[in-house]
Amino acid sequence: YSRDEDHIAHVMELLGEIPRHVALGGRYSREFFNRRGEGGAGPAAGAMQMSSPGRGELRHIRHLRPWGLRAVLQEKYEWPRGAAAAFARFLRPMLAFEPARRATAAQ
């Protein structure tokens, strides 16, 4: 798989599954996402399989290991739990996959 698909996988591990209409709506979606919703073998322990109905599934990377934004701030960057949770709540609206749901600069 490509470096771009790997990057998309990391974003999905951090922020969750991409809604199908967003994942399949882009000019290059066929390069990265499987339109048929085919799944591979069962997920590894602690992994999530990207074949949920209504979600975009990566073409070559089948199993992701979710590591949410708050957890990354706490575990990787050693932020205190409260500060990590507050900052994650602040960032999440700006990182929404759907442009209509994404926070604007004015907000």
Automatic annotation (TrEMBL):
InterPro entries: SRPK. One of its GO terms (molecular function) is ATP binding. The keyword Kinase applies. Signal peptide: none annotated. Keywords: ATP-binding, Kinase, Nucleotide-binding, Serine/threonine-protein kinase, Transferase. Its EC number is 2.7.11.1. It catalyses: L-threonyl-[protein] + ATP = O-phospho-L-threonyl-[protein] + ADP + H(+); L-seryl-[protein] + ATP = O-phospho-L-seryl-[protein] + ADP + H(+). It is an enzyme of class 2 (transferase). The keyword 4Fe-4S does not apply. One of its GO terms (biological process) is regulation of mRNA processing. GO terms for cellular component: cytoplasm; nucleus. PANTHER family: PROTEIN KINASE DOMAIN-CONTAINING PROTEIN-RELATED. This is non-specific serine/threonine protein kinase. The lineage of its organism: Eukaryota, Metazoa, Chordata, Craniata, Vertebrata.
